[in-house]
Write a structure and sequence with these properties.
The protein is mostly helical. 75% of the residues lie in helices and 4% in strands. It is built from five helices and two strands, in the order H-E-H-H-H-E-H. A two-stranded parallel ribbon has the order 1-2.
Length: 170
């Protein structure tokens, strides 16, 4: 599938080049993964998510410590506790394990939903910055997906220009 896209892009470029033999075609190439990783908005989104989920993460850590303490007590006191006391500890431990599993699943689901929301916002800003750079630079093409190799110092590599533009977007 990826190779098919690359071939299509190359075909369009060659067709464009043959039709506009005397006109200069200006092509820009971006590394979208770099933009999504290094954009200042990406760091802000990561910090926002971490703050938003810090309380729930602490709750999971606390529950994990309680489970470890129960397991340690069960292991340490098995010979001195009555069968009923052992059974009660085992029930309590099982209950905490179930709660932990449920909380972890809810945490993961909620975190993924929020991360996807933040990623969608970031992608909109990245697209806006790409369009601004394309218009300012009067590019005919901006390529992103399907690029197999992009030299960091290539004239066609406009990733840094887009990052600069992202710094201006709030």
């Amino acid at each position: 599938m990826q190779l098919k896209k690359v071939i299509q892009v190359i075909s369009v470029i060659l067709l464009w080049g043959s039709c506009a033999a005397y006109a200069e075609v200006k092509i820009g190439v971006i590394d979208r993964s770099v933009l999504l990783e290094k954009a200042p908005q990406a760091e802000a989104a990561r910090n926002k998510l971490q703050k938003e989920f810090a309380g729930r993460d602490e709750e999971l850590v606390t529950l994990q410590k309680k489970m470890e303490a129960l397991q340690g007590r069960l292991k340490r006191d098995t010979l001195t506790l009555s069968k009923d006391a052992i059974r009660n500890l085992e029930k309590e431990l099982l209950s905490k394990k179930r709660k932990m599993k449920r909380l972890q699943e809810e945490f993961r689901e909620d975190f993924n939903i929020r991360r996807n929301e933040e990623l969608a916002k970031l992608q909109k800003k990245v697209s806006k910055a790409i369009l601004l750079v394309a218009k300012k630079g009067k590019y005919d093409f901006i390529l992103s997906e399907g690029v197999i190799y992009l030299a960091p110092d290539s004239k066609a590599n406009i990733t840094k220009s887009v990052l600069k533009e992202l710094n201006k977007i709030k």
